[in-house]
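ugh finaly. both done.
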Amino acid sequence: KILDPAVGTGNFIVNIIKRIPRTALREKYAHDLFCNEIALLPYYIASLNIEHEYYEKMKEYVPFEGVCFVDTLELAESQQLPLWMVEENTERIKREKEADIMVVIGNPPYNVGQKRENDNNKNRKYPVVDDRIKETYVKDSQATLKNQLYDAYVRFFRWASDRLQGKDGIICFVSNNSFFDQIAFDGMRKHLLKDFTQIYHLDLHGNIRKNPKISGTTHNVFGIQVGVGITIAVQSSKHTNRTLYHYRVPENWTKEEKFSFLGEKKNVFDINWLSVEPDNRCNWPTYAILSEFTSFLPMGTKEVRDSRLVESSNVEFKSLFRKYSVGIHTARDRWVYNFDRNHLANTMKNMIETYNLEIARWADAGCPKDIDSFVLADEAKIKWSNTLKIQLARQAKTHFRTIAILPALYRPFCKQYLYLDNIMIDRRGLFSTILPTSNSKLENTIIVVSDHGSRSPFSVIATNIFPDLHLLATTDAFQCFPYYTYAEDGSNRRENITDWALEQFRARYGEEVSKWDIFHSVYAMLHHPQYRERYAENLKRDLPHIPLLKRVEAFTETVRLGRALMDLHVNYEQQPEYPLTPLEDESVPYEQLTYVEKMKLTPDRTALVVSKGLTLAGLPVRCFEYRLGNRPALEWVIDQYQVSKDVRSGISSNPNRVDDPEYIVRLVKQVVTVSVRTVELVEELARAVMLEDWLGDVTF
C-alpha cells in the first residue's frame, strides 16, 4: 500500500523514475521498485541520486555499483548473510569488506534504546562493535550511567574508527552532538583523540531538552529534539601533534540561518575554529571549567562511597559525606506512585498477581530463554523492565504488603504514596541504609542535588522522605546526601558527615562547629547564586565541591541561612499561606470550587485558575524566580496536581483529597510563600557571602 500512487508515495517514486535519463534504466528500476519489498527503497534511491548527480555533471549515464544493501554495523561481525533481493549485493558486500577504506561519511541514527520494555522492540545487538565499545569507551569512562555509550551513532563512531584499520583516513558524521560535552562520553572523547590526529566539531545546537525556549521545527536542522553536530576526524601520519577544534553557531539561529552558514562556508578552512585543549578528565571544551573548583571540599567521592572500609573509624575519608545515593528508580512510575493510597494498593495487588502468574507460566513452559517474546506484553496488566524480567528468570515471587506503601517526594512539593518493594522497584540505591523501611519512625534529612551529566540547570532541594530518581527533572538523575545513615534493620545510626570534614571546619572556625552546622552551611552554598553561575560548567561534570570561607562571620551566616532554607523546603506544608485573593464564581457549588482538574496560569501570570469556579489572584512576580530545574516551584505544582489517566495502563491519578478538599488550594499558597521567602533568603546569602570570601586560600 505504501507504494500505491493513491497514497502519494507511489507518485513520488514515479516522478523519480520519470527523471531518469535512460529508458532501459528507467524500466529496470520501475520493475524492481514495484516488485521488490519496500525495504529496498533506500537502496534504489541512493543509487538513483548518485547516478543522476553523475549524469548532471558528465552528461552521460554510468551505472554506480558501489551501493550495498546491508546493515553497516553487521559488517564488523563474522559474516553477512546473502540477500536474495539483489543478485549483485552479496558480491558488493564482499568487495567492500576487503577494500582499503580511507573515508567514511554518514548521518548515523541516534537511538539509545526502546522507551518501554513491554514493546519488546530492543535495539539489535552487535557483539563485536559492542565489545569494542566496552573495552574502550566504557572502560575509560568515569560516568555513573553509561548506557548512552551504546547509542546507535556511538556504535558508528566506533565502527568507523576501527574500519580505517589504523591507517590514514577521515570520518565525517552528522550526528547527535551530545558526545562533545556530556560526562557520559568522557571515555569516547579520550579514544577519539587517540584514534585521530585532528578533530573538527561544528556544533549546530538544536537541543530542545537543554533549551526549551527554542523549537525543534524552527531551530533544529532536522526538526528533532536532540542537538546536531558535524564532526570531521582525521588520522594523518604526517601530523605528530593531536589537535581539537570547535565552533558553535549562535544558539538562537533558525535552521535556515544554519543552512545559509553551511552553504557560505563550504569547507573547514572557511571557519574560524576555536582550538580546544582537553583537560585530564577528557572534558571538551574546557574554557568555562574552572580549575579552582577541584580544590574545594568534595561533597562525595566514589572511592569513599564504595569503600569496604567505609564503616571503619580508622580510615580518613577526604570528602564531606561518607555515603550518597541516587534517588528511587522505579521504571514504572504510573504503577508504583499514586496520590490515593487505596488506588495504589489495588494497582499493585493486580500487577503482583499478574507477575507471579507469569513466573508460573514461564516455568510450566520449560523456562524458554527468549523471555522478551514470551511474557505478557499487555501494559494494562503489567509494566515490565529489564530488571523485572531478570527477577522473573530467578523465579523471585513477591506478595503485596501494606507496609510497603510509604510517603515519597515524587516531584518538587509533590508528595505521593510509593510502593517500595525490592521486586517491583528497579533500583533503591542505598536507601535501605538511608531510610530503612524496617522502622517507619526513623528520621532523616536528605540534600538532593543534580548529578554530574545533568542536562537541566543545577538544582538542589531537601526532603525527609523518599526522593524519586528524577525528582527535579523528568530525565536527569539526582544524588542524595543524607545527614544520617543506618544499618538495614534501623539500628546503628551514624552521622554521615565525615570526621575529616569536621576537622577542616573546626580548624578554621573553632571547636564549637557541629556536623549539623556543616550540613546547613553546605545547603546554603548550593543555593548561592554566584557559586552556581561561576561553576555552572563544573557542576555539569562533577558533584559539587564546597569552598571553605575566609571569614568566620561568613560561615556563620551560611549556617543560619542554610538552616532557614532547609526548614522552608522540608516543612513546606507547615508554612503560612501567601495572601492570594480568591475570585469565586457564586454560581458554582462550594464542593466544586476546590476540585482541581487542571490548573493554569493566566496569560499575564498574575493569577492562577484553580477550577471552573475559583481563581487565585495576586501572584507575586518573585514567586517565579525560585526555580528547580527548568521550572519555577509553582509550575511544578501546577504540572503535577491534575487529574489524568495513562493511555497505556489505564491507571488514573487524582490529586484531590476527599478528607481534605482544600489541600491543593492551601498547597499553592504555601508554595508561593516558600518561593518568595527562598528568593529573599538567597539574596541575603549573596550579600552576606561574597565571591572573595571563598577565593584565595582554598586548598585543603
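ok and the 2nd:
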Amino acid sequence: MRTPHVIAIVLLLATASAAELRVKVLDPQLAAVAGAEVVLLQQDRSVDVEVTSAQGIALLRGALNSESRIRILAPGFAPQELALPRAQAELTVNLHLATTSETVVVTATRTPAPEEETGTSVSILDYGQLTLMKPVSAGEALRFLPGAVVDTAGQRGGLASLFVRGGDSRYNKVIVDGVTVNDPGGTFDFGVVPLQEAERLEFLRGAQSTLYGSDAMTSVVEVWTRSGSTPLPELHLGADGGNFGTADGYAALAGAHGPFDYNLFGNQFNTNGEGVNNQYSNSSEGANLGWAFNDRTSLRFRVRHLNSGTGVSGEWNFNGQALLPPDIDQRAHQNNLLASTELLISGPSQWQHRFTGFEYNTRRLNLDNTPDRGCDPINFNFLDCYFLNTAHSNRAGLSYQADYTSRAWAQTTFGYNLEDENGNFDSAFLTLDASGNPVIGQQFTHGLRLNHDFFGQQKIARGPLSLIAGLRYAHNPSFGNRVVPRIAATLQALRGNDRFSGTRLRFSYATGIKEPRFEESFGISGIFPTNPNPNLRAEENRSFEGGIEQNLAGGRYSLSAVYFRNLFRDQIEFESTPSTFIGQYININRSLAHGAEINLEARPTRRLDVRTGYTYTSTRIEEAPLCTQQTFCDPMFFAGQPLLRRPKHSGSLLLNYLGNRWGGNLGASFVGRRPDSDFLGFGINHAAGYARVDLGGWYALTSRISAYINMENALNRRYEEVVGYPALGANFRAGMRFRIGGE
C-alpha cells in the first residue's frame, strides 16, 4: 500500500512530465516574431523543439525543473538562451539585435543557426533595411552587399545579372518563399523582381549544391514574405513620384485572428526612363496566408505574381561613344507566377517536418518589328531586323525536409526533392533562304525533365569547434546521377576580451553543380538546327575557402578576410561543322577564379549598422580547345584570357540608421574596369570602372504617417554596367507612407 507521501511524489512527477510552457517571442519593438525556433533543453539534451506562430507563440512540452533552459534562434536576431529557475506556465522573451558576429541565418544550413557556426559568408537585409532602401528590384538591393557584382543591361527593367566570386551569371540559385525561380539551367533576371513586403533577404556566397542542388555554384539568394501578426488588421499604403515620370503606389493589409494570419499586398511602378525607349512598368501582387491547426501543425500558402514591360534601347553608347542610334521599338515583357504550400509539423519531441508543394511559371516575350537601325539581309546586315522570341518555362514539384535536434549542440537535417521542369523556347527572325531572299526563319526548343534529389547534413557545434558535413544525391535526366559533398569547420582560436572579442578560423570545401539549359540538352529545331546531346554532364565547381574573423569591442565590430578558389569544370560550349554550322553543345571548357573578400561590419550603436567590403577576383580561362587562333573565335575567349564581366576589384558600403522618428541610409558600390565585348565588331573589349552612390531617408510626421525620399546614382555618374547600355543618371523618388490599424 502506497503512503500519502509516495502518492504526492508520483503526482508531482506526473504533473512535471506533463508540464507545458507557453513562450512568446518579441522583437525589440515588442512586435511578435514568427518563425523563431524555440528549443527546450535538459542538461544539453533537446526535449522539445517548436516554431513560433504568427503571433510569436510556441508551446513547449516537457519536465520543467531548475536545470531547464530554453534556446531561441530567430533569423536576423542574436541567439538567446536562458535558464528557467522555477516552473512556470508562461514566459515572454524579448530578443536583442545581433552583434556583428552572432546573427542567426537560415540559408546556410536550411534551419536557423548562428552565422559564426555555419562556416559561410552570409549577408542579410531585413524588413527595416529594405523599407529604408526601398529598392525597385532585387538587383538594386544586392549591389550594395559584399561580394555581389550586379550588371544591368540598361536602365529600369533591363536584364540584370549577378556575378559572385568569378562565377557565371547562371551560377546563382534564387529562391523566393521556398520556390526556385531560376530558368532550367540557372538563368535569372534580377531586374524585374520587386521586394515589396519582403521580410528578409539572405545572400549566401560559396558553392551550396549539397543543400540546394543545381545552380547553387557560387551563391544562393533567398527571400521570404512577411506574415501578419497583429490582432487588429493593419493597412500599410503609400505612394511616391520622381523625375523621369516615375510613379509608384503600393498597399498591404496584414493581421492575425485566432489560428489565421494573412498578408495581402500589391504594387504598381511606372517610369519613362532617361532617353529613348526606356519606359518600364511593373505590377505585382501577392499573399501570405497561414492557418494553425493546433500548436504543433500549421499550413501556409504563399503566392506572388508580376507582370512587367520594358523598352529596350539596345546597344548604342559604348563607354561614352554613341556609335549607334538607340533602338526605338524593341520591347521585352515578363509574366511570372509563383506559389507554394507548406505544411509544418513540430514533433514528436525533437523533430520538425516540412512538406512543400510548389510551382513557378514564367513567360517572356522580346519583340522588335521595326528596322529603325538598319536591316539589309542581302548585304548581310542583320543589326536591327525583325525578331520575336518567346519563352515559357514551368517548375513544379514536392519537397520534404526533416530536422532532428538531439542535443543542444547537434542537429541532423535531411530531405527529398521532386521537381518537374518543362519549357518551350521559340524564335522567329528575318534571315535568307537558299536563294538569298529574305524570309522569316523559326527555331524551337522543347525540354522536359523530372529530377530527384536526396540530401543530408549533420551539424555539430560544441565548445570552440563547429563542424558541418553534408551530402546530396542528385538524379537529373540530362546529366544522370551525381553525388555532391560539402564539409565546413569553424574554430574559435582565441576567446579574447572586451577589446579583442574572439578570433575565429573557418574552412570549407564543396562541390557545386549546374544542369544544362534546355537548348543545350534537347537541341534546337528549325532553320539553323542544333543537335541534342543527351550525354552532357553537369557543369561543376570545386570550391575551397578559408578565412579568419576577428571580433572587436564586445562583438560590435567584426573584421573578416576570406580566400576563395573556384575551379569550374565541364563548362558547356557549342561545337559546329564549318560547312553547315550544324553542331551540338559539349562539355569542354575549364576556368579558374580565385581571390579574397575583406569585410568590416560594425554596429557602434543599436541603431546604426555599417557594412563595407572589398573583393579581389582573378579569373582565367584554363581550357578552351574550340576557341584558338586557327578557329573563327573572338580572342577574348582564348585560353589564358580573363572571364567576361568579372572585375578584379570591387567594393561596397552600406550604412543604415534606424531611429524612432527618422532613418537614413547611404549605399556605395565600386566596380573596377572589366573585360567585355560589344559583339558587333567595333573592337571594344572592356567596360570602364565606375562608382555609384545611393541615398535615402524617412521622417515620422506622426506615429502613423511618414515622409521619405530615395535618390539613386546621387552623384549623377555616367557609366555602363554592360558595354553599350548606358545606366540611369541621377534619379529620385519622394513620397508618403501611412499606417492604419494594427497595434
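summary for the 2nd one i guess: The radius of gyration is 27 Å.
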